[in-house]
Amino acid sequence: MYYEKIEQSKVHCYLCPHNCIIKPGGLGACRARKNIEGELYSMNYGKVSSAALDPIEKKPLYRFHPGSMILSAGTFGCNLKCSFCQNWSIAHTDPGTTDITPEELAGKAYSLTRKGNIGIAYTYNEPSIWYEFVYETSMLVKKMGMVNVLVTNGFISREPLENLLPFIDAMNIDLKAFTAKFYKDICSASIDNVKETVKTAAGKCHVEVTTLVIPGLNDSPDEIEELSCWLASISPEIPLHLSRFFPNYNMQDRPPTPVEALMKARERALGHLKYVFLGNV
After folding, report:
1. 27's torsion region: left (phi>0), alpha (psi -120 to 50) or beta?
2. By C-alpha distance, which of 223, 37, 141 is closest to 231?
3. Which of 135, 7, 116 minimizes the C-alpha distance to 71?
């Protein structure tokens, strides 16, 4: 879905704002979409790398069916290049996968309702590049009376987002920072597209936002306050999760976030938002 054939058997993928032009045999920036003889294929369709029955709070979603369990599932690939990635072994390598159909995954979720499961959370890697599988599975899950949750970086084009949202009940969106420079230098992406996703989704489903607070990069109290003011302009009811950074992946040169810094950031954010939570503390 969401591509056009262009000259010399190349394809233009517009699932996400990278708008990749992919030559025959090539992959998009996400490593999950491949041009095979002039047709674009999803290489992670039906490929599950990780699955677990988790507390909903682990997503993190604190204001959506608290106390419930949800079946979490993910695949491989990501359309951001965050050097601090906390799930890099899934998102940026080639993990082992198990083949599964949308019907099988939805059926598994339904069979777990006796254990308190309320649906499926598409997580671990970036679910938007698992688009076709998530789209088909989420329709089945809704028909079974369960919920769908996206744990996402929010870097998705407007049309595919709006077509998926009718089947999505809640999203936790990573807002990596609140400067264009951070997104460009650290994530190889644009903050404007993510902000647009937050605004669009907040009008359609339950939304919570997570920011990983990294010392010296996005931990300025003024930046946290600016982020909080912007969220509050959409709705002061949007919960914000400020998460503690630990050295990981290609960012090993910075210390863990001091808990005191997180607490001060929370105080600033609470001046504008009703719900601010701390994570990884």
Report:
1. beta
2. 223
3. 116
- End-to-end CA separation in angstroms for the chain: 40
Q: What is the pLDDT along the chain (281 residues), one digit of tens a residue?
A: 999 999 999 999 999 999 999 999 999 999 999 999 999 999 999 999 999 999 999 999 999 999 999 999 999 999 998 888 877 667 667 778 999 999 999 999 999 999 999 999 999 999 999 999 999 999 999 999 999 999 999 999 999 999 999 999 999 999 999 999 999 999 999 999 999 999 999 999 999 999 999 999 999 999 999 999 999 999 999 999 999 999 887 788 889 999 999 999 999 999 999 999 999 98
Q: How far apart are CA 47 and CA 43, in angstroms?
A: 8
Domains in the chain: ranges and CATH: 1-43 (no CATH), 44-279 (3.20.20.70)
Distance of CA 164 to the CA centre of its chain: 14
As a whole number of angstroms, the distance between CA 227 and CA 170 comes to 21
Q: At what angle do helices 259-269 and 221-234 cross, to 10 degrees?
A: 40
- Other CB atoms within 10 A of residue 30 CB: 26
Q: Cα 28–4–30 angle (5° rounding)? A: 15
How far apart are alpha carbons 86 and 250 in whole angstroms? 10
Model pTM greater than 0.85?
Answer: yes
Pull the structure tokens for residue 51. Answer: 């699955």
How many C-beta atoms lie closer than 10 Å to residue 253's C-beta? 8
